[in-house]
Design a protein that fits this description.
heterodimer, A: 244 residues, alpha/beta, Rossmann fold, six-stranded mixed beta sheet, four-stranded antiparallel beta sheet, 10 helices, globular, B: 335 residues, mainly alpha, two-stranded antiparallel sheet, 80% helix, 1% strand, disordered C terminus, binds adenosine-5'-diphosphate, binds magnesium ion
């Protein structure tokens, strides 16, 4: 069983805007969790808080039996949390293979001074590139990939860190339908292999079709959580989305 | 370039450099050679931070000056032999740089440039202000470790000492560039937050790169003190020396092992030439600044990639070369 992620009263303001406002949620371990909500409801900020990219004003983040609120992002990555970014981020001037080999899991001196193109690591990288379907691009520079290919690369690189819990920020954003299908299948398979997902997504068909558990954000805090069925019929959710 | 001709070129270059002191027609040109190798060390060391991480330090002369004064003071005031004086002061400077680095590498981009300038200005003021120890603005005299040698012989010895340091700096760069550590540093240059999110301990990596870079610069500073025998705080802590390191590296190409070295081969003799032709003036700093801007605008990747591109344009693709030779070989076989 993988560890569970919980937050308690997580809060973050930017100037006058409270982007995340006392958010307490629980991510179900071993499941595909969805995080939905209107634009600007604080989903990305929530991801940034959980992964240590920005400091919370107050509240706590708990992962398994550890409190990781004040951890730096690389320690959170080492603890088993991986993430992608809303606007896909890769290393544009590095080759696809070099991109894959950046993920550092161990930081002992001998390992750091060892060659970066370690045979076993390269094989592992190829394995993940094959799984996302871009193994033929191994020696291309990141910047020469199409946007969709970059998204796949970003995803593959995250898995080089062997995360238990993967946070995806709009994986289907700006991607064509065929690719969305591929990403959905991939997430499903990876979940069956025991990885937990928390997916922010605007594409409702994708969320409702793929997720086991959906959390709905509005103005920086959860207003509903449950199965896609339950959430879809929740009056507060309808109100937040449709303004009725 | 195919690896055969690359190694050939490398061997030829190395042989020329090693033979230089014996080829130099007079003491002045030998002196200029020592200076050039010293700048090559400085630029290559600068590139351990600047090239890998993209953190542009204009104030690396702080570590040059500290290494020089540290060595000079240990030799003059504490009567230390020169080798321990050189090594110990460089190590202390590297540790100091690491501590400064913890604060300095928190800021990125232009802010980091400003912080690096502030550092060198502070060091300059400190050394000039602490007259009783450093001799203040009049400078510090350092005795030569090689009293039995004349000037020319002394230049020759220091030429090879700087050369050894250059080889060490190049080797360090090469080892890092192939390592996981180097892969993390390059990722920092491309997208620091992304690197961090993939598990790269970016702060620790940057601080180590900063300290390592400072270590080699300080070693060069120490050798400079022993070679030059008189330290002028205005020169050793100058923005000019710091900007030379940046200009040489950018001009040659920061992504290449030999980029900064190539930049030094061009900038150092040119700088010396203008110094002789025009005398000491502010023109140097201005010219260096203008050149920096031009390089950044028109050749941001440096000379090495620019030349490589040019060579590719004039050379037929590899495949057709191979076909040609195969054809010729069969003709020869028939004849
Ligand atoms: N770095 C920032 N500085 C200032 N305001 C921010 C910053 N990041 C997010 N915000 C604000 O916080 C709110 C939530 O944004 P975000 O987390 O991106 O929402 P979502 O991902 O749900 O669309 C928005 O009002 C946004 O403008
Ligand atoms: Mg968002």
């Amino acid at each position: 069983m993988t560890s569970s992620l919980r937050t308690e009263g997580l809060t973050k303001s930017f100037g006058g805007v409270t982007a995340v406002d006392g958010a307490s949620i629980e991510v179900l371990p071993g499941k595909i969790n969805g995080l939905i909500g209107p634009n600007g409801s604080g989903k990305t900020t929530f991801f940034n808080l959980v992964t240590g990219m920005i400091r919370a004003d107050s509240g706590r983040v708990l992962y398994g039996d550890r409190e990781i609120t004040r951890y730096s992002p690389h320690r959170i990555a080492h603890a088993g949390l991986g993430r992608t970014f809303q606007l896909c981020r890769i290393f544009p001037r590095m080759t696809v293979m070099e991109n894959m080999l950046v993920a550092v899991r161990r930081t002992r001196l001998r390992e750091l001074l060892a060659g970066s193109h370690d045979k076993a690591e390269v094989e592992r990288a190829r394995h993940w590139l094959r799984r996302v379907g871009i193994d033929h691009l191994e020696s291309a520079e990141g910047r020469n990939l199409s946007y969709g290919q970059q998204k796949l690369l970003e995803l593959a690189a995250v898995f080089m860190g062997d995360p238990e819990l993967v946070l995806l920020d709009e994986p289907a954003g700006g991607v064509n339908p065929a690719l969305i299908e591929r990403i959905v299948t991939l997430v499903r398979t990876l979940n069956e292999e025991g990885r937990t997902f928390l997916v922010v997504e605007h594409n409702m068909d994708m969320v409702m079709g793929m997720c086991d558990h959906v959390i709905v954000f509005d103005r920086g805090a959860p207003i509903a959580a449950g199965t896609p069925e339950v959430v879809r019929n929740d009056p507060r959710v309808l109100e937040a989305y449709l303004g009725v | 370039m195919r690896s055969g001709s690359r190694y050939g070129l490398l061997a030829l270059g190395a042989a020329l450099v090693i033979a230089y002191p014996w080829l130099a027609p007079n003491t002045y040109l030998l002196y200029a050679g020592v200076l050039t190798v010293m700048y090559a060390v400085l630029a290559t060391s600068w590139n351990l931070l600047g090239g890998f991480t993209g953190y542009v330090s204009l104030g690396h002369s702080a570590f040059f000056g500290l290494g020089a004064y540290g060595t000079g003071l240990l030799v003059t005031k504490a009567d230390w032999p020169w080798i321990p004086a050189l090594l110990v002061s460089a190590l202390v400077v590297a540790v100091f740089a690491g501590l400064v680095g913890v604060a300095a590498v928190r800021v990125r981009g232009a802010s980091f440039v400003i912080v690096s300038i502030a550092l060198v200005s502070m060091m300059n003021l400190l050394v000039q202000g602490w007259r009783s120890l450093t001799g203040g603005s009049t400078g510090l005299r350092v005795p030569t470790p090689f009293r039995e040698l004349n000037r020319g012989e002394s230049h020759l010895v220091f030429f090879y000492l700087f050369l050894v340091l250059l080889v060490l700096a190049l080797l360090t760069w090469w080892v890092i560039s192939r390592s996981r550590f180097g892969s993390g540093l390059k990722a920092i240059r491309e997208d620091e937050d992304k690197a961090e999110s993939l598990g790269v301990p970016t702060t620790a990596f940057k601080v180590v790169a900063y300290g390592l870079s400072a270590l080699f610069v300080a070693l060069a500073g120490g050798l400079y003190a022993l070679w030059f025998r008189s330290l002028d705080p205005i020169f050793v802590f100058s923005i000019l020396v710091g900007s030379y390191m940046v200009l040489m590296s950018l001009l040659g190409g920061v992504r290449h092992l030999f980029g900064p070295l190539l930049g030094a081969l061009i900038v150092a003799p040119a700088g010396e030439y203008f110094l002789v032709a025009l005398g000491e003036s502010q023109i140097h700093l201005t010219a260096t600044g203008v050149l920096l801007v031009l390089v950044v605008m028109f050749m941001p990747e440096g000379i090495i990639p620019a030349v490589a591109k040019l060579v590719r344009r004039f050379r037929p693709p590899e495949a057709s070369i191979r076909e040609e030779t195969a054809e010729q070989r069969s003709k020869e076989a028939v004849a």
